[in-house]
Amino acid sequence: MGNLSPIARSGVVVRRAGGQGVRVSDTSRIFISHAGVDRSWAEWASWHLEHAGYDTELDCVDWKAGENFVERMHEALERENPMLVLLSSAYLDPGRFTTDEWTARFAQRRKDVDVKLIPVRIDNVDLRTGIWAPIIVPSLCDLPSEKAVQLLLESVGGVLGPPAPATAPRYPDSPAPAASVDAGPRRPGSLPSVWNVDRRNPAFTGRDGVLNQVHDGLSGAGRVAVQALHGMGGVGKTQVALEYAYRFAGEYDLVWWVSAEQAGLIGEQFTALGVELGLVEAGADSTVAKSKVLGHLSGQQRWLLVFDNVVDSEDVLPWLPRGGGHVLITSRRGNWQQIAHAVELDVLPREEAVRFLAEQLPGVDNDEAGRLAESLGDLPLALAQAAGYLAETGMAVAEYRQLLVEETRAVLDLGRPVDYPRPLAASIALGVAALSEVDPAAVAILRLCALLAPEPIAVDLIVEVAQPTEPYPAMLAPLPEVIGRPLVRQEAIGRIGAYGLARVGSGTVTVHRLTQAVVRTQMEPSAFAELSVHLQAVLGRMYPGDPRDPASWPDWGRLLPHLLAVDPAHTDDPALRLCACDAVVYLIGRGDTAPARQLAVNLFEEWRHRLGADHRDTLRAASEVIWALRDLGEYSRLQPLVADVLSRQIRTRGESDPDTLRSASDLGIILSLLGDHQHAEEVGRDVWQRRRQVLGEEHPDTLRSASSVAATLRDLGRYQEALTLQHQVWDQRRRVLGEEHPDTLMSANGVASVLGELGDFQEALTLWQQVRERYRQVLGEEHPDTLMAASNVVSGLAKLGRYQEAMTLGQQVWNQHRRVLGEEHPDTLASANNVVSALGELGRYQEALTLGQQLWEQRGRALGEKHPDTLRSALSLAIAYLNQGRTLPGRRMAELAWKGLRKQLGAQHPTTQKAAEVRDTAMQMMGGQAGGNKKRRR
């Protein structure tokens, strides 16, 4: 059949049935505002309005693929064209984009009462309260098709008046009508006269995008349009097809459902269709019925055949009619390229899974529903089973989730939905049993995948696991003969997907977490343990490279989920333990510090219990805990932990062991973060010297020590020494690591910082801007290092007197820091300090004072009252007081800052001297005020 959408048009030229272009004004076109779930209503309304002579604009029809949807929507809402609003429960859902559409139109109406709004109700949504209550809203739902069309036209005509006469549109690419005019689609929800579809699922949720995608695919004209929904078992293929049939039923005169799992029964169902159409008698031969039905359908336009649960494309190929109708196929297999356009169905998006559970379990809040959806992997069948069982028994969600871990197979056998033939666990078990009869190698691959993560598993990893070793797991015995033969291997992997037990992508296999759990329950404990040990050994060998180097991060990203799945905290494999520690480094380098800390703490605590507090791997894990805490800004916890690790390493490994030197380096960095720069320099220089002797002059660890010393020299105010050393390290890192390695960029940032302290503000700003751009390209917009570089750009702008630019960027960076790192992370507070300074320079003294007071208190909590950064905030607060003429509190804060900085940094440090200047200024201001008072007293 042809497309039932309004006629294709280009720009503002509308092509009507006679082929003549009619130029219309944008402001005269009726924009149809609707929710995605109500697309069938939108197309129905558009068709009948066009038929009557009105011009319409409908996003899914008039906007071309690839256009900017948000931009086009903004343009449509900005115009003063009439808006037809299809009100429904979905439309008024606050979480949908439609909220922006109707609220924007109400805002326009407040400014201009002539702006046109035409609301109609298409379901039984309650409009008795709220903004829509006083507005008359006609209801189209539950009316016969003819009366619904009449009421729609009356509603539009009552606002816009009668349309210009026009020739009725026809379906695109269909023959021009002879004597009769096509009546168009029926009201959505009205069923055709020939219909055998099972009852609609009242709990169906979401999938609007998939349903509309299928509809677009089926609406192509010129041949039979065939769409094939495919995906793993339990993903909801049949339910989507069922919903499609009901949602778009008004567009068809015939909808026939064919259960195709057993190909031999298709003929009987075609015979039943022939009887329904009056083409054959009951009991007719299926061959005759097939011929009659296919012949009839080839001459018709508005029909839909659904072939559900097809096992093989060859099973349905002989039953596909010719002509202009639609065919929708559901199958676990994806090999439909020759006869259909394939649409792969995945699990529900988390938001839709949560909405489904919340609707089915009214007492469950969204957070609880989200945790349950995560445990079930968002698989529709599992969600339906869980909702049914919980609703029936009243079991707590937390208890169900716990049982799901402890007794997966038993739990997945509970609560089978009435419209699914068997529970999820039984369905998976039957699939595995059937696969084992056909391809033992495929089952072996499935089993090894069941012990990895429910994330894409690279075929290369499977090949590595399958390589023969001594010992070799008996469970993988079928693989050595297959794994080295790419064609045979890929056939085995393809069969896993064909049986609905996995998703097969380009070079990857993904097994759902619940499928994995059921497959694991089928394994003998000894075989499970044997395969686990083998996997741990293989993964430990698959080292992706330096975890600090972004070039290795894609490989780390692919390996990490599977590394964690084999539980490195409990492994006896030394290589896997080392790899797990470096995985923490990778996470920190990538900016995922919170999960890095969780992993590091888990490794440290478990290894301390199993291996002992002095074991090398335990201490390595402790070092990663230290680094994670440092990046999270939890400085107060660092010194005792690093001191304990360092003392154990010195005792067990010696002072010059690389691991000991790593911890000593950590100590120097922590001392500097805590404001003890003098002690930090002593420790840092000692480590630098030892690393040069042990590792060499240009080893990356040696260069890290040199960079730390240079940073400490800057903190101590020894800027020229710092600049010389930073330049040296920057040159070495560019040569050893490359221009865009994060360590190289950190050195460039260090050079710029010292240039700024020396007063070369323009060169510093130029370099900071370059560093920021490189960070954005390598690490991303909101990586902590990128934000640090952006914060430095703010400082450079301010030093050049570009205060408004500094204020704009500073506010942005501060907001990003708060979102990424939290309100009181030291880096967040440094960003806030930039904003305080910019506010003061712009004369916004009260804002500067308010934020400065807050910042001083926050730094005191986070860093301690004597930390140099806290004292710098006290100095900024003193300046803010003085700018407002409040000399007494200004002098007190300046005195506090000067005394503290003199003790922490020394009297000659530039920041201490600045504090002394501010203190002296405050005293002079007070003296002037006192003199003025005496004069007045005379």
Automatic annotation (TrEMBL):
GO process terms (BP): signal transduction
Gene3D superfamilies in the cross-refs: P-loop containing nucleotide triphosphate hydrolases (3.40.50.300), Tetratricopeptide repeat domain (1.25.40.10), Toll/interleukin-1 receptor homology (TIR) domain (3.40.50.10140)
InterPro entries recorded: NB-ARC, NLR-like, P-loop_NTPase, TIR_dom, Toll_tir_struct_dom_sf, TPR-like_helical_dom_sf
Statement: the UniProt record of this protein carries the keyword Nucleotide-binding: yes
Residue intervals of the TIR domain: 26-160
Pfam families: NB-ARC (PF00931), TIR_2 (PF13676), TPR_10 (PF13374), TPR_12 (PF13424)
Protein name (database record): ATP-binding protein
